[in-house]
Prior knowledge:
Strand order of the largest sheet: 1-2-3-4-5-6-7-8-9-10-11-12-13
Keywords: Leucine-rich repeat, Repeat
GO cellular component, one term: cytoplasm
Number of strands: 13
Protein name: Leucine-rich repeat-containing protein 14B
Structural class: alpha/beta
Distance between the termini: 76 Å
Family: Belongs to the PRAME family. LRRC14 subfamily.
InterPro entries: LRR_dom_sf, LRRC14/PRAME
Amino acid sequence: xxxxxxxxxxxxxxxxxxxxxxxxxxxxxxxxxxxxxxxxxxxxxxxxxxxxxxxxxxxxxxxxxxxxxxxxxxxxxxxxxxxxxxxxxxxxxxxxxxxxxxxxxxxxxxxxxxxxxxxxxxxxxxxxxxxxxxxxxxxxxxxxxxxxxxxxxxxxxxxxxxxxxxxxxxxxxxxxxxxxxxxxxxxxxxxxxxxxxxxxxxxxxxxxxxxxxxxxxxxxxxxxxxxxxxxxxxxxxxxxxxxxxxxxxxxxxxxxxxxxxxxxxxxxxxxxxxxxxxxxxxxxxxxxxxxxxxxxxxxxxxxxxxxxxxxxxxxxxxxxxxxxxxxxxxxxxxxxxxxxxxxxxxxxxxxxxxxxxxxxxxxxxxxxxxxxxxxxxxxxxxxxxxxxxxxxxxxxxxxxxxxxxxxxxxxxxxxxxxxxxxxxxxxxxxxxxxxxxxxxxxxxxxxxxxxxxxxxxxxxxxxxxxxxxxxxxxxxxxxxxxxxxxxxxxxxxxxxxxxxxxxxxxxxxxxxxxxx
Length: 516
């Protein structure tokens, strides 16, 4: 690790390791050393030093992601360390920067960017406690409201610092976020929402919060899980609020359900397509678990900017949808594609081939979970994937493939030069005979562990023999880690139970009415 650090960085570590001395010395340090000391303090988890560095920050901007990223002085990337000690110290330092009377020579901070922080599963910091996206939202809003309660010091009135953040709003922090956004004008810390995620939130509250968050600046909007946003609500939102910079849109399950489509709904669908076409930067769209059978063209053909990321997993797409996608302007730009939950080999093998051949020069990530890919389809799959030389990630959990078929695939994976991550299914022969696919959650874990471990070891040996030991191969049975879900799963569970109870009550009441 020492070889990855410059002498300058090692000296910075030595300085900040004595917190008291470092804090006393800040006034005599050259301004250009502050970024170096920030990263060194972060690495050593010196919260008090971080606080004082931010409180006395002498530069125009403080971009946390950049400061923690790889640099000539320290190769290690710390931007995925959402260390609670460090981030809390950073934010309270920011509050105190505003509170203490500014000297005209030193106080010139204009922008703080918190958007480059990446939430990951394993925290390697000593405190082992992350400050996730929801908690960062909560803390920043609290500090903004705190500042309003304190009388401004002389010279502090003209201070104004833009704070760029990815907000995460749920029922539990809604009031706080709304208060902070409503009082933004009078607060010296100006919240600028770059990405907005809503979960476990009543629809009217979501509409209100997203309007307050300044949609004109929003680049990413995620509406997930327990926000009951349906097609007609989405049309109202897009008709009443403009999102000129939006690049990424994620919609909750069943936003679209074309099985109950009326003539009026067809117009709504077309209107949504038109509104999305007015977003010139929109390149990422996720519509997992909506039912879109036969309507993909209507929704996507108005878009003038080609999509780079498309998630249409479990959308009940038919042959016409697949043919449209393969021939559309999007096909040659798709870098990330999720087609999980579709019976690809039986329903549209040739159009799937065509789609992959069109996107092969750019495709980085392909997800084909529960697509009924069997041993007899392995050669077809390898043929379809072979032109995809840029492929970095391939996930195909939940497909009924034998150990032998997986070995063939892994030999082929050695030939994909950019491949870094593979998520493969538990082999079919590790489950009891007669197991049907897709396997339900109750039977997902009832496989022969020892046999699986043996096969997984053999697959890793294949990668090793092909000089591809850098490829990560795993079987996350219950899907990949989602930091946002993990952070709010208690609230999510409560919300699900509440909506389940409401549904049961409605059902019971209608039964009572029928029996009267």
